[in-house]
Amino acid sequence: AYGIYLKDGNNSEIANAGTIYANGDNAHGIYVDENAHNATIINTGSIYLNGTNAGDAGITLNGGTLRNMSLMSFNGAANLNDLNGLIYLEDGGVYQAESLEGDLNVGTSNVLGGNQDTYVNEGALQADNIDNLNLASESAMFTARATANANGNGNDVVLERKDFAEFTPNESIANYLEDNYRAGNMEEMYDEIKSQRSQPNVNLAIA
Question: 136: exposed, middle or buried (C-beta count within 10 Å: 0-12, 13-18, 19+)?
């Protein structure tokens, strides 16, 4: 049984806005076929992966990308690297499991809007153990880390901005960018800079 099955095509994008339950052995909430190249799955609904055995992934991406903006719930432990793709936590997204490990990218949607130095996705990681979870910010302008939620609601994902001086050798430009960012000016321009995924691209966006 499949909640989402993507058979073939190039650069396909599929969105789930409903509720998917994948129950039992070999049940898949998401399955991307090997012939579907550069596929992107966007979840704005809820996906519950209840395999027969605790830890059954219920997702096969075959090199595709999953961008989770809502709830993704695993039965038992979950190793995100077993999904065989790029896994993203987007703004408002939650990953739930007994334990979470592997690589998780924190999408740029978490840092857009408002010129803040710190953005927090509260309660985004609902797991007792995240010791082996590796967080990385998609935005080159930020670093990502996890911290226990102050109210006991799992773990928050915190993104902290780097100084503009790290991206330009020109002190006057760096100071100009810092001053206007802190003043809340030119939000659209700063969103474009924050959307860049690599330091060279940030440098170009600033230039």
Answer: exposed
Tokens, residue 9? 């095509």
* Residue 26: C-alpha distances to residues 62, 68, 84, 128 (Å): 16, 22, 16, 26
Would you say 110 and 145 are in contact if contact means Cβ atoms under 8 Å apart? Answer: no
Residue 23's nearest CA partner among 4, 55, 7, 1 is: 1
Number of Cβ atoms within 10 Å of the Cβ of 98: 15
Strand partners, 105: 88, 136
Interhelix angle for 187-194 vs 199-206, to 10°?
160
Exposed, middle or buried: residue 184 (CB in 10 Å: 0-12, 13-18, 19+)? exposed
* pLDDT averaged per 10 residues, the chain (length 207): 75 90 78 85 92 61 94 92 95 96 98 96 97 98 97 97 94 95 95 92 81
- Name the DSSP letter for residue 150: T
Three-class SS of residue 114? coil
Beta carbons of 135 and 146 less than 8 angstroms apart: yes
Distance of CA 15 to the CA centre of its chain: 15
- Return the H-helix or E-strand segment holding 190: helix 187-194
